[in-house]
Amino acid sequence: MISQKKFSSRLLLTICTVFAFLCFVSSPVEAAVQRYQFDIRVANVSRLCHAKPIVTVNGMFPGPTIYVREGDRVLVNVTNHAQYNMSIHWHGLKQYRNGWADGPAYITQCPIMTGSSYVYDFNVTGQRGTLWWHAHILWLRATVYGAIVIMPKQGTPFPFPQPDREEVILLGEWWNADVEAVEKQGNSLGLPPNMSDAHTINGKPGPLFPCSEKYTFAMEVEQGKTYLLRLINAALNDELFFAIAGHNLTVVEIDAVYTKPFSTQALLIAPGQTTNVLVRANQIPGRYFMAARPFMDVPIPIDNKTATAILQYKGIPNTIVPTLPNLPRPNDSAFAFSYEEKLRSLNSPQFPANVPLKVDRHLFYTIGLGRNSCPSCINGTRLTASLNNVSFVMPQVGLLQAHYFNMKGVYTTDFPDNPPTPFNYTGAPLTANLGTSKGTRLSRIPFNSTVELVLQDTNLLTVESHPFHLHGYNFFVVGTGIGNFDPTKDPAKYNLVDPPERNTVGVPTGGWTAIRFRADNPGVWFFHCHLELHTGWGLKTAFVVEDGPGPDQKVLPPPNDLPPC
Hints:
With 565 residues, the chain is mainly beta.
């Protein structure tokens, strides 16, 4: 809950919580300080005929939405009453010079121990739209997550038609068993953990699941009105299709960056990504299912069940049976590719796409699965994952502290810019010599240099789609393709005018994605696959971005209450 202390914007925040669209037309001009209290508590929650204790924020599942305005300062006091260590990541917030508030455990901080507190203190600068927050330790983000709604500056309208109302739509996963126990069992066996038992919409699986009549999210709409849906994929391991029966979706924003609007019957959203869509209630009044179901275009076992919620026109009785949307087929890679191709930055004078045209540093990272020896595991091996054949080893102290205080022996800065051995990355599956090297190896980037990173999927064990998230930055997705990246031909096809700008991007199955960014945010910034399974297997690294010459281009000093290691 919001703390009871009175601030100038408290009334605004209350209004925002109920009618967020009002915040775009009336508010104090000055930047405000928004304070939240997050109590990490275990609460009993029932889904799918199963009750179990889960880790929550303030006893809520999903957790509370944070409402702020561009330019605000935010202080979130996190007090940990649970048995697990905790850290919270504010996914997509750039945290300029302020990695101490970024949140990933052992990257920018040590976790908040049981009985302790830490205040995440950050400014929301130059960003507006939908982001989200989640636990960034173990698999606790299965239940510890919520939305961040950033309203534009006072007097700045949306660059699309003003909606009549808006709604946050959080897509998630649910396990009947204890998620941490599921993960531990998988690790001890060296195998993937058991898949989830359901997907959820705002924490509820919907009426296609048992015992779920009262665990169904419903949204009432009025004929002729327009609604802004703020979609967030908070699932741990699944890319999801989303659609609403009978209604088109107009995409207007991704990862808190405005896009050129386009209409679609369905969308694709990867773990970590957000998408804002406009929906007009222009159909025959009735009840219509919203639905989310995974996209998987390789034969890997997944939880393929469909979560549903209800779009209900005002005055329509609950006895009317909703109609289901026609979602793309679970393996419809053609739809996935065509949808991603439609995403373009707005690139207007007010919201330009400042794509780096000159590149100082070229990086080429291969994404691979592998097997390392594990005598205690079920097959004598443990599944692993790597970038450029390096499986990342988490340190025991925060990497940002080690960088800031120049601590020796915590990490090296010799992460390879290219794979150690070039090969036919997307040829026949490779099932021999699948061992990886291990290390806490980072890549050092000079301040303000421009970086192009090509992410190449490989057929080590199997090809697969991977959503990658870069902390501390947005980047431009300048190119993508199927097969092996061709450095002589493919750059000529890049979009350097209005490419989508995001913080999380999907690398297509058996393909590649090229991103560009300017390294103007000093600190240590995590870069990892946002499939929790692969992150745990080592599919991650970090960039050490050096300080710049100016006084406002250096990492800020750490706060006094930074959790000890």
